[in-house]
Amino acid sequence: MITRLLHTRYRVNDLEKTVIFYRDILGLKEISRHTSPRGSTLVFFKAPGSEEAIEICHYPASGPVQVQPDLTHIAFEVEDLEAFSKTVAAKGYPFSDGPTVTGSGNKIAFIDGPEGYEFELIEKKK
Question: For the chain (length 126 residues), average pLDDT per consecutive 10?
Answer without folding.
Answer: 89 96 96 96 95 95 88 92 94 94 94 93 90
